[in-house]
Amino acid sequence: MKRKYQNWLIAGFLAVLFVVGYFVVAKPDSAGPGVLLNLDNQTTNSTETYQLAISDISAAVDQATGHVLVSFKLTNEEHFNISSVQVLYALNVADPNNATYIALNATADNGTYKAEIPSKFGDAVYYKVKVAYDSGKTLESDVQSITVKDTTAPTATLSIEYNATTGNATITVNASDNDAIDKVILFYAVTADGNLTNVTFSNVTLTTAPYTYTLTVDSNTTDSTYYYLDVYAEVYDISGNMVRVPANGTVQLYANETKTASG
What we know:
The chain is mainly β. 10% of the residues lie in helices and 46% in strands. It contains one helix and 18 strands.
């Protein structure tokens, strides 16, 4: 009876081994709940981090007004609670790192922020960007600088009014500039035949508008001898930009009658 009981135990043990062997050998890819056999394909969770940054800062001078236009972008701004975006500026200061800066609110336009600093030609402009975000945090750029330079030349026209009775000619230059006119230099020559080869032009400098100058072309208006008057001008603004009028050659007047010549 004892031997029979032992045989049953052996048979039962063999049956258990058969079942376990089946699952291990015949189904090696199956797994129970919570078990990952294929470690190469397991998914791990990661935390994304973002950094708020000020980028692409640039400044340009508006030649019509002398104002400085500042533009820039904010990287990753969509991940932060931004409360204000400002451009801080100071004009003509000795120490930009310890100056008192004036704040301008920047406006966004298609992902680019812009602000207009009310400067004028000749100013040294110092500026930086300041961003307030996430309830009390701030981000500031380094101080940038730009000198407001006028690079636009004046515009001008020239006319000559000749009076055959007096023999005098009045030269007038009408000039304008985006900033201010400094001076007008008139160059003129009186010749018998209008041939300007080897002719030295006289000149006069005018510094106050209206820019006019009167000279005698013919001191004897009763004879039949007539002269030629050739004129051109150089017009300068206070930044040194110059325009010549006419652009080439001269405005020429043949002083045989009362008339006006222009160019």
